[in-house]
Amino acid sequence: MRTAYLAARVLPDADTLIRDGAVVVEGERILWVGASGEAPIADERIDLGDATLMPGLVNAHSHLDLTHLRGSVPFEGEFAKWAERIMHGRKKPGMAEAARNGIREALARGTTTFGDIVDPRGFAEIVEVFRETGARGRLFVEAIGFRPEAADEIFDAVWDLVEMRALPETVSTGVSPHAPYSVSRPLLERAVAVADGHGRPLAVHLAETLEELAFLRHAIGPLRELLKRVGADDPSYVPDGSAGAFLKRLDLTRAPLLLVHGNYLRPREVPAGAFVVYCPTAHAFFGHPEHPVVELLEEGVRVALGSDSAASGATVDLLSETEHLARARPDVSGKAVFRMATEWGARALGFDAGVLRAGALADLAAFAGASGHEILGRADARCVLTVVHGRVLHRVDPTAPLGETAKLPTVA
Predict the structure, then answer these.
(1) Rounded to whole angstroms, how far apart are CA atoms 222 and 176?
(2) What pairs with residue 10 in β-bridges?
(3) What is the C-alpha separation between 10 and 268, in angstroms, rounded?
(4) Which domains are delineated in the chain?
(5) C-alpha separations of 315 from 8, 48, 205 in Å
(6) Residue 302 has pLDDT above 70, yes or no
């Protein structure tokens, strides 16, 4: 089946604009991109009119299994106390249904792909949520355990989920040694070795809070006290001294490395080839000083965008993140935001998507009400089409003032 999507504007990447353009999709891949008058014959033509067609948005860091905690865990100034409340709240019922609704909300706003951190205990439920919604996902199975003696048992359970389970065609896996304060050295070494050996992306929370920096420098502070409180401390732990020193343990040569948050990262600390994932609304939720995103970009670091969780923001849709970013950081150009929300997110997750070109995965989004590469920062941008893996998962009438959502196709 070959489908041609026509639009007044096509943005294949952050540097290109095609007026009166078309994207032709065959199966799950893009067949052709160019001027609509030159498009090859297709079985179906979908004319989006005065809309802007572009790559689907990539949420490079989410915690979908916390969506049921939306708005229920306020931050009161200490990250460790907030994290402890999240640990208890994670056990409440309703996780899968909330995650499903969160993905569907995001699909309706143009997000096609998630880099989702998954608790091993909820892995099967999250996989089923992706199967039902049809979204694309890189599921980073979370490895947590600060006691060295538990490293083998923990990682064996993680690896069983990463490598040994049957998955939907839109879902792949990765590894996430959670953070410097929650992963023992042996567990981190195993995660790094296996991720690199198998080419699996690895995501780690790093330089997220001042509390984490205190832990890295001196092994003290609220996060160390949290470990003691929950019976997970390692009395023999010797701190690395800095985020940069910790990063030397993440010696990846084949697998993408995602440094999540990076609120206190310096560009010179970021290893060559690594991605930093900036979560604008979570950054604001916790009241951090200005994120070093501009300095990172100026030094050539590739920055992707994420939402973190609905517990630290309102949604898991990336359009909301770009809108917040445009308001909070006008010093980040529209083209930079476009690339962060598409190409670099896809590359960080290891997917052949994020740009519109022949051979790439057919993950598309179209917006009415705004145009040009600044579209993602515009409050009037309204998603009228979302396509994942060549399947239409969201569509509205772009000519209607408010639009009427079409019946979503059944996802096999």
Answers:
(1) 22
(2) 18, 53
(3) 36
(4) 2-56+354-395 (2.30.40.10), 57-349 (3.20.20.140)
(5) 29, 27, 20
(6) yes
